[in-house]
Amino acid sequence: PVGGTLGSVVLIASFVLLTFTVVMNRRLPGFALVVAGLCLNFLVIAVNQGMPVSRDALVASDQAETIDDLRDAGGSKHHLATSEDDLLFLADQIGIPSPVRQAVSIGDIVAYTGVVWFVVAAMRRREEEVRRDLRAAEVST
Fold this sequence. Notes:
Layout: H1 4-24, H2 31-48, E1 51-53, H3 55-60, H4 67-73, E2 78-80, E3 94-96, E4 102-104, H5 106-123, H6 127-140
Parallel strand pairs: 1-2
Antiparallel strand pairs: 3-4
Helix pairs in contact: 1-2, 2-5
């Protein structure tokens, strides 16, 4: 929890490192979407020196108790959205209620979709592997 300008620098640096890691894995299934989602989030965070979170998203996600804290002490990572923020359509505008209790952005949804794609692809066996295993089973019987 680092605040001020140093907090913004640390947050942006962490996004750069995370994006570099994801770009290095871009050939894996779904990682193009993870890169796109991270870039969308990075853009809105860089422009606004932190991710704006809408009051409506906080209420919809059962986090109304955090509104005063975000307005009064918002940090480098999140702050309560105001009319002075730019690219608000990319901010945390979507409230997901309990049990998740999370305000998310379009970038989050794009990145999460890429992660789900990756997990599903990793769980599915490749057709050629299945054929090989079937042939091996036939030979051994």
